[in-house]
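User: Okay, second chain of the day. Same drill as before: sequence in, structure tokens out.
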Amino acid sequence: MTTPTFAKTAEIAPDQRVAMISDMHVGDGGASEPFRRQDDVLRAFFEHVARDYDALVIAGDGFDLAQAWSMRRIYERHRPLLDDLRDLSRELPVYYLRGNHDESASQLAEVLPLRYSENLRIGERILVEHGNVFDPKNQPGDRAAFWASRTHAMIEKALRSPVRIPMRKHYCWSTRLGHWVFFRYGMLQKLMSRLYGALGLEERARECLAFLDYWGRGEWGNLNGVLDAGEALLRGSAYDVLVCGHTHQPGQVRLSSGTYVNTGSWTFGETTYVDYAGGEFNVRRWPEAGALADEEYRGVLGPHSDKSFFEWWEAFYLGWLRYDVEAMDRAALGDPLREAGEDAR
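Assistant: Same drill. Structure tokens below.
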């Protein structure tokens, strides 16, 4: 028997109507599961797909093997949901793209006989990726990154509370504490960078600041740097549209080089998906009818594209593990930093 693997690329004809979701992170059903047991909501969405679509694309991280450790364990906790997905795959094609929380196609296929691939094309001009291929800290096949995700899941399980970015979406005691600890770590890295620079070790100096920049871009709205890398791919390829998941940041952004679409996630109460029909894309929240545009990206498309983590901290930290969430929301929508900073103080 052939062991299931992720094929290089799957293809869908451009005249098909396609639903796309990603990052459900269905896990072990415990308190630290990001999916938060939205089984009935997702099952209703599958019924909608069966009625109105020609295909479903799950663009990675549908199941959180870093959090749950085994697909069998996920099936035990979410049996009706996975049974519905298996039934759906018998009615229409269900494509599953490899995400950074997915260990192997063979483990997934033990429970779900879906169409597994690394990425997917719709016609010649649309590319669908999970998105971690554009993430310098989560490259495909990076075992260290997978175990970092597993360690993060274990920390959240021990705390029974999330430690996440951006702060404005996860304002709880554990995330607030995590940011405070990271700021102290950042100050140490800044000091080490200066020391290496004084010794002429410029590469080591840059490495000290690299993760601070990575974290900081996420706080301002360019999570994992995927938006910038996606724009570079569109500029240097024949694709007009790039669809990604990975960042949990839903929306559709018109760029000079093409269109970037993000499926968002089904974590922490979110229920976003992409509707592709007749060559048009709409990003929606299930079961709402309205479409999302670039709301989640206006801050980094406007006044905050190159802001650092330390500038974020200066603008929004109020002391005693308190942060100005309302000012963060305004900044994310594109308000100038001056307004956010003044209001925060």
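The first strand starts at residue 7 and ends at 12.

User: Thanks, on to the next one.
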